[in-house]
Design a protein that fits this description.
Blueprint (H helix, E strand, L loop, with lengths): L12 H9 L2 E4 L2 H10 L6 E3 L5 H13 L4 E4 L12 H9 L12 H9 L6 E3 L7 H11 L5 E6 L4 H12 L4 E6 L7 E6 L3 H6 L9 E5 L7 H15 L4 H12 L3 H13 L1
Length: 271
């Protein structure tokens, strides 16, 4: 069941009805959900279900369902099982033959996309990227050639490093939307070139606070003939030059983005 991202008025009428009707509410943090329940005068008992106890709590929920009890699953904010605990619970509950019914509502992913002004009709959601910089860049480089907008969640202590990695791996010219603290008092939605994002954070330390959705606009599709020609050029240059020089010359000759050719050059070398 989806719950508000920040503004408690964003709860749906159906969600309120369900929260009142179920026997137990399984919550990522019972203290957080209690604020929502108290705000709406709901007295339903709660239990904790988070990433550290999900297996044990899942069995408890299954036991409750076997006793004909009704259980609602919520995360701290937004829709559960979307970069939040819940997927294991849903899978196990279905395996035991019990019904799982979605109660839709707020989602940071959808809220951010709706105000991003991104023209691309397709997007790739990566959730929270790896905390380690090398792994994060590797992930971003692996999707650099895809003709989709790319959406990520990020924590405040990593967001500045992540936007730097986006600029490096995807290209500093790519349009980046930074959606911060959606539906909350200090909500901000900022759009800039990826290469300018770190400076935007540096200009005001308060911009590093809160929860973030990052959306990178699509690089656009490249004609297959153009890419094949660029790769042929790269093959020739790699036979005569070190990798970095070959890539740089291939970029100047073909106009193809450096990160795409660098990725392909590494593959060629490994082959």
């Amino acid at each position: 069941m989806a719950t508000p991202l920040g503004n408690l008025q964003d709860i749906t009428l159906r969600a309120l009805e369900v929260l009142n009707a179920v026997d137990v509410i399984a919550a990522e943090d019972t203290r957080v959900v209690r604020k929502l329940l108290d705000h709406h005068g709901i007295r339903t008992p709660t239990m904790a279900l988070h990433e550290h106890n999900e297996r044990v709590a899942t069995q408890r929920v299954i036991d409750l369902l076997a006793q004909n009890k009704a259980v609602a699953l919520v995360s701290d904010a937004g829709t559960p099982a979307i970069s939040d605990p819940g997927a294991l619970l849903v899978k196990r509950v279905r395996e035991h033959g019990f019904a799982v019914t979605p109660v839709p509502g707020p989602s940071a992913l959808i809220a951010a996309l709706s105000v991003a002004g991104i023209a691309s009709t397709q997007f790739l959601f990566l959730g929270f990227p790896p905390a380690q910089r090398a792994a994060r860049r590797k992930l971003l480089e692996s999707v650099a050639r895809l003709p989709f907008a790319i959406v990520l969640y990020e924590a405040p202590h990593r967001v500045r490093g992540t936007v730097e990695d986006i600029a490096t791996a995807l290209g500093g010219e790519r349009e980046l939307v930074i959606a911060r603290e959606l539906t909350k008092m200090f909500e901000q939605v900022h759009r800039c070139a990826a290469g300018q994002a770190a400076a935007w954070f540096d200009a005001d330390s308060n911009r590093l606070r809160g929860e973030f959705v990052l959306i990178v606009d699509s690089a656009g599709e490249m004609e297959s003939d153009d890419l094949e020609a660029a790769e042929r050029t790269l093959h020739v240059l790699l036979n005569a030059l070190p990798l970095k020089q070959a890539v740089q010359l291939a970029v100047e000759i073909t106009g193809v983005k450096r990160n795409l050719l660098y990725e392909r050059a590494l593959t060629i070398k490994n082959e």
